[in-house]
Design the sequence.
């Protein structure tokens, strides 16, 4: 194995604590899986050397912390990596990537561990765990944030809102910033501030050759373009630098909820109403079931601007139909940002499909309402786009879907494994009914065939292939919405 700077002055005294069993556990080597799915044995000396090179622990099966590290958010996923490199800094990531690359070892990268299909953990390969790298440094004068690749969205919101600043983050605060951003980054203020990727000034990226590259519009600009929507295909981001925006932490928002019997009327109203809103206004549909078992449909609103203007903007919605509840008013943005954290807690069995709606047509509404039934009812919701998202050209970043109305998501969450088959079937049936009205999908919230995935990058795909071929010719980083290099090994 090539030796990087494997002698860290601060590591020697900590080796026994961070890699306590390396001398016995790896005496006969470690069984693992390569990129082709074949078994191999990692030599004991090399594994020991890797462990001693890291500032964080290298975990093997049976080690304290191994099961906690390999467990991700979706309770459906139960995989066992051969090695888990819990990285303390960018140098650790370099060492782990180089080790895996030299051996053609299957690699998964975990930030927040929120990948719906479980791509942040692998069976028999190496998990590169960034969760310890969660710092957020705010420069309130520059209005920027430098965020560790393992930070959660809640870390970012907490740090930025303390300075009356914000950047687009998602709707579940325990989501990881890395996967969220690299796929695009949709959230409640994207119409005002753009997608998360539209606010990435620069990033530090470890590529498949183990190099740490600074990427920006001026330096490694091809990678800067590619990571903004191209997912984890090009390496491991150890830090992002975001542009922040002045923001009042007290927004005007809440939800108006209706019985599902009014769903068709609500959707028809919503389709027209949502087309004429200012960029400050975000309106999103959701469904729910009351404690009494009644189906509900709601519209969540968030206004990133003047509260008096928000009252006027949301008045037509609040006057529409016969809602069963309306809690719209001034509220803390942090409260809204964490409002479904409990519902979406770790360990639930989860399945999800999604797709973009260019517009909400009467035919799409009929498909949604008429097929939303059954014993294993999945939930559906939208994410409102347009505004500043649509002001960016489709080829300005790798994210091609700039001119859509909404992302339409369908998900099921349950706890009883015996229900899995029926839950998944019900969701797929509902998705099949709505899919003809969709055009592409948000790669962070869908997992599809290679052909559909490649087509989802639209006209940006050929350029992405060239960049992938340049920086990851062996497709080391393949557990993602994968872009194959021109000549993978």
Sequence:
């Amino acid at each position: 194995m090539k030796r990087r700077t494997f002698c860290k002055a601060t590591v020697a005294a900590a080796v026994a604590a961070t890699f306590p069993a390396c001398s016995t556990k790896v005496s006969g080597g470690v069984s693992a899986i390569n990129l082709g799915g074949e078994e191999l044995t990692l030599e004991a000396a090399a594994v020991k050397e890797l462990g001693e090179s890291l500032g964080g622990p290298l975990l093997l099966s049976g080690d304290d912390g191994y099961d906690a590290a390999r467990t991700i958010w979706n309770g459906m996923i139960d995989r066992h990596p051969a090695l888990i490199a819990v990285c303390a800094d960018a140098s650790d990531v370099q060492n782990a990537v180089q080790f895996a690359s030299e051996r053609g070892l299957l690699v998964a990268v975990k930030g927040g561990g929120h990948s719906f299909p479980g791509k942040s953990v692998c069976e028999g390969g190496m998990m590169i765990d960034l969760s310890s790298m969660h710092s957020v440094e705010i420069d309130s004068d520059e209005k920027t944030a430098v965020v560790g690749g393992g930070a959660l969205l809640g870390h970012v919101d907490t740090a930025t809102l303390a300075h009356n600043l914000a950047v687009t983050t998602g709707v579940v605060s325990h989501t990881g910033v890395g996967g969220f951003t690299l796929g695009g980054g949709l959230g409640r203020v994207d119409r005002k501030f753009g997608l998360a990727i539209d606010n990435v000034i620069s990033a530090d990226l470890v590529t498949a050759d183990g190099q740490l590259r600074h990427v920006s519009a001026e330096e490694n600009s091809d990678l800067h373009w590619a990571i903004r929507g191209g997912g984890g295909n090009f390496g491991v981001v150890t830090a992002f630098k975001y542009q922040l925006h002045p923001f009042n932490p007290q927004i005007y928002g809440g939800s108006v909820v209706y019985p599902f019997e009014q769903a068709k009327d609500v959707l028809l109203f919503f389709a027209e109403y949502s087309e004429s809103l200012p960029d400050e206004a975000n309106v999103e549909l959701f469904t729910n079931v009351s404690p009494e078992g009644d189906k509900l449909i709601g519209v969540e609103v968030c206004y990133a601007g003047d509260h008096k203007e928000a009252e006027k903007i949301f008045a037509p919605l609040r006057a529409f139909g016969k809602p069963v509840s309306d809690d719209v008013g001034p509220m803390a943005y942090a409260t809204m940002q964490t409002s479904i954290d409990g519902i979406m807690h770790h360990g639930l069995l989860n399945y999800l499909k999604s797709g973009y709606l260019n517009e909400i047509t009467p035919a799409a509404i009929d498909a949604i309402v008429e097929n939303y039934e059954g014993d294993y009812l999945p939930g559906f919701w939208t994410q409102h786009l347009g505004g500043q998202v649509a002001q960016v050209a489709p080829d300005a970043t790798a994210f091609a879907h700039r001119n859509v109305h909404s992302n339409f998501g369908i998900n099921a969450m349950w706890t009883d494994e015996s229900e899995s088959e029926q839950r998944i079937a019900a969701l797929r049936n509902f998705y099949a009914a709505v899919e003809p009205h969709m055009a592409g999908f948000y790669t962070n919230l869908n997992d599809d065939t290679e052909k559909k995935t490649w087509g989802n990058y639209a006209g940006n795909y050929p350029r992405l292939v060239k960049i992938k071929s340049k920086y990851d010719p062996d497709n080391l980083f393949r557990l993602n919405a994968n872009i194959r290099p021109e000549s993978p090994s």
User: Anything to note?
Assistant: Residues 420-434 form the longest helix (15 residues). The first strand starts at residue 30 and ends at 33.
